[in-house]
Amino acid sequence: MKVIRTCLAVAVAGLISVGSVAAQQPAAPPSEQERAKTPEPVSGELVSVAADTKTLVVKTSGDKEMTFNYTDQTEIAGADKGAAGLATAKGSMVTVHYTVRGTSNVAAKIEVHPKK
């Protein structure tokens, strides 16, 4: 009787583990919406900087203007004094690496290129 009970317990345990492995599905590829959250960097002319709202406007090719928010964690390269130096860089070419959060473009890194 103990042997039958042991065999039955082993069989049930095996079925449970096989069932849980079969129930696992491979991870789905990221959706188009998720891929859009980290778009390609944008390059263009720095048009304006509003330090009070921590926003900047970049004019890209085709005269399209894009607005970006920046934070204290945004890496700023090529501008003297970091974010404070952005205001003096108006008219310079910049490259903005950003993510999309809701309807806002949030800059992760801003690269200011020297004026030619």
| DSSP summary: helix tally | 2
Helix content: 10-25%
According to CATH, what is the class of the largest domain?
Mainly Beta
CATH homologous superfamily of the largest domain, by name?
A: Copper binding periplasmic protein CusF
Beta fraction = 25-35%
Number of strands: 6
Can you tell me the number of structural domains? Answer: 2
Spatial separation of the terminal alpha carbons: 90 Å
Write the layout of secondary structure elements.
Blueprint: H1 2-23, H2 32-35, E1 42-50, E2 55-59, E3 65-69, E4 75-77, E5 93-101, E6 104-112
Can you tell me about this structure?
This protein has 2 domains: 2-29; 33-112, Copper binding periplasmic protein CusF (OB fold (Dihydrolipoamide Acetyltransferase, E2P), Beta Barrel). It is built from 2 helices and 6 strands; from the N terminus they run H-H-E-E-E-E-E-E. It has helices spanning 2-23, 32-35; strands spanning 42-50, 55-59, 65-69, 75-77, 93-101, 104-112. Strands 3-2-1-5-6-4 form a 6-stranded mixed sheet, with no helix packed on it.
Provide the descriptors you would attach to this structure in a database record.
116 residues; alpha+beta; OB fold (Dihydrolipoamide Acetyltransferase, E2P); 2 helices; 22% helix
